[in-house]
Amino acid sequence: MGWSRRMANEVCLRNLDQERPWLLEQYQSRGGYEVLKKILKEKTPPEQLIEEVKQSGLRGRGGAGFPTGLKWSFITRNAPGQKYVVCNSDEGEPGTFKDRDILRYNPHQLIEGMI
Predict the structure, then answer these.
(1) 6, 27, 62, 75 - which has most CB atoms within 10 Å?
(2) Using alpha carbons only, what angle is made at residue 5 by residues 96 and 99, rounded to the nearest 5 degrees?
(3) PANTHER family, from UniProt (predicted)?
């Protein structure tokens, strides 16, 4: 079935009603960074993570809603040179504020996802 945009917003914005949700301690008290710890401890292969993200139906928050797992699969694991992770949270379009509250109130979830 995959994720709808509404479901994605529920995940990204679920902490807005918490007191000082941007604090590391608050994020960890709600289970933050536990998935990352598990992935690192179990040394989950990148291909498995990409497949799980594909199966989840997770999509980008831009207008096209591009499938995240598909985007990740384009990265060549053995490509030479240094690799970078970029968080594009540009809201240059007039009246667009889709990312601001995530960056402000849920930054650790964003960081955990990027790692």
Answers:
(1) 27
(2) 30
(3) NADH-QUINONE OXIDOREDUCTASE SUBUNIT F
